[in-house]
Amino acid sequence: MRITSVAFDTDDLGRAESFYGSVLGLPTRYGDGALTVQAGASRLVLREGDPGPGRQHLAFTIPRLMFDTAKRWISERVPLLRDSEGRDDFETSPHWNAHSLYFEDADGNILEFIIRRDIADDRTGPFRPEHVLAISEVGVPVGDVPAVAARAEAAFGIEAYGTGTSDFRPIGNVEGLLILVAPGRHWFPTTVPSGSTSLSVHIVGKAAGSLEPAHGITIHSDIMRI
Predict the structure, then answer these.
(1) For the chain, first and last CA: distance in Å?
(2) Which residues of the chain fall below pLDDT 50?
(3) Domain named VOC: which ranges (predicted)?
(4) Which pTM value belongs to this model?
C-alpha cells in the first residue's frame, strides 16, 4: 500500500509555502486555492481553511543509510522534538525495524523523518530534499479506532500493522500506514493532541473504494496503474 496524496487545511498558505518550500526545500506550486508539495512519490495538498483543533501527523520515508546525514541537515533548519528523557531520535520495535526523528511544521503539525530498513534504498552521502521518498504515514483521528480498523479491512483489505490499542492502531504496510488514533491523543514524542476537521488521504495498492471514517475525513483507494 502506498500513500499517493494527503490533503488538509491551513490558515496561512504563505507560511506553509515558506516552510515546505524554503525550509524543507521541497517542490511546491499554487493552484485552485491550495498549495501542493511534492514529497517524493507523494503529494501533500494544503488547502486554505480552518485547520480546527489538534494537529496532523505525517512521516516521510528517507533512504535507510542516510539517517545521520538527514538528522544533521534537518537540525540545521528546525528544532528536533524531544521526549521526556531528552532523546531526539528513536528506535522502533523490531517489527517496525525503523529509526526516526520528529519536528514541527509552521502550523505545529508533527512531522517525522523515518528510515525503514525493509525498504531497499542504499544511497549514501549528504542528505538533500530529493532524498525524501514518500509520505509513508498519516495520522487519522477517529472516534472508534477498532471499529474503523475493521471497516478499512472490509472496504480495502488493509490489515493491522503490528500491535495496537483501543486509541492507537496502525494499519497498512511498510510502504504506507494509516495511524488510527482517538481524537486528542498526543502525538509522540509531544503533548500535542491529534485532531482534524478536514483530512483526505489517497492510497493505491488495495481494493478500490472510499471510506469516511469520521466527519470531514475521507480515505480513497485507487487502482494502481502500471
Answers:
(1) 14
(2) 226
(3) 2-116
(4) 0.96
